[in-house]
Amino acid sequence: MAGGASGQDKAPVPGQDWADGFRADCVRVADLLETSASARLRALRWFDRPLVEIAASRALQDDLIASAGPRHDAHGFDRLGWRPPPRLRQGAVTPSVWHLPDLPTRPWFLPDGIDRRLEAAHASVLAEFTNIRAAMQPHPDSEEIVTRGAWPALIVIGAGGEMPEARTRLPALMSLVDALPVCGNFGFVFFAGTVAGTQIAAHSGSTNLRARRHLALRVADDTDAAMVVDGEARPWVMGRCMTFDDAFAHSVEHRSGGDRVILSVDTWHPSLSEAEVAVLSDPVFPRFGKITQAPVAPD
């Protein structure tokens, strides 16, 4: 997901509770980073700012709080610190919000056991999706990056939590998700589709801390559509999973044929250690710098 802002500014939230909360979150982040056994985590950046410096400096925190006002983004958050997404670069990750430098990665990942588990669940997940498909709405980033066509989506899990009634309406999917290393603090689980003529412009995701997995739920025999990641195009094959680092520039071109529907599941980046995942799983991260919370929305 693009992770950008809508371009609309919103008046600051009345009262100072959010400012006190932000300062408290900075204290928590500082403690996590200082006590972490991972020196690499101390290089973590937030909107291209060194997170450890913000967390340790009351002056930097006050500057952010006193800045022009919170930014209202496309996903329903008012947030501090927003900056325009970085320029896309061939061969490099360009995440818009959370960036861990020097994390070994690649645009496309080789198939693994998680992919196989998703593929094994194809029939049950497709059946559940068919019953809930009418609830799909335009993806929150559609206005920013869809240049033609339509990109409907249904966010099942986002930074705000689970979709209401997810457990009762999608029991097979949620049981599967519970068994996977889902990157809940920095990622999502969602359904998305495109129709012939749709073009999603090149963009990068909000973080390089995750691996994005696409399980092709429905792909018509005549569908001519592909995902392009860092210049390499790959088509979806019904029932198969493909995994990529969405911090690289990626785009979608659905040229012709029937519709395409995928289940997207974000898991922790495979280059992260268990200790690093434990730190990044702290609940401070999904709320950091956010003044208001959307019910279910990605970062």
Set down the secondary structure blueprint.
Elements: E1 5-9, H1 17-35, E2 45-46, E3 49-50, H2 51-56, H3 58-66, E4 71-73, E5 78-79, E6 98-99, E7 108-109, H4 113-120, H5 122-132, E8 137-138, H6 142-145, E9 146-148, E10 152-158, E11 161-162, H7 166-169, H8 171-178, E12 189-194, E13 198-203, E14 210-219, E15 224-229, E16 232-235, E17 241-244, E18 250-256, E19 260-268, H9 274-280, H10 284-287, E20 290-292
Antiparallel strand pairs: 1-4, 2-3, 2-6, 4-5, 5-20, 7-17, 8-10, 9-13, 10-11, 10-12, 12-19, 13-18, 14-17, 14-19, 15-16, 15-18
Short characterization:
With 299 residues, this protein is of the alpha+beta class. The protein is 27% helix and 29% strand.
- The low-confidence parts are 3-14, 294-299
Report the major sheet. Answer: 8 strands, antiparallel
Shape by Cα distribution: globular
Number of β-strand runs: 20
From the alpha carbons, calculate the radius of gyration and give it in angstroms.
Answer: 19 Å
At the third CATH level, what is the topology name of the largest domain? Jelly Rolls
**Element-level helix/strand string:** EHEEHHEEEEHHEHEEEHHEEEEEEEEHHE
Termini Cα gap: 8 Å
CATH architecture of the largest domain: Sandwich
Q: Strand-residue fraction? A: 25-35%
- Pairing-aware structural class of the strands and helices? alpha+beta
Q: How many helix segments?
A: 10
Taken together, the total number of domains comes to 2
- Oligomeric form of this entry? single chain
**CATH-wise, what's the superfamily of the largest domain?**
B-lactam Antibiotic, Isopenicillin N Synthase, Chain
Task: Write down the CATH class of the largest domain.
Answer: Mainly Beta
Mean pLDDT: 90
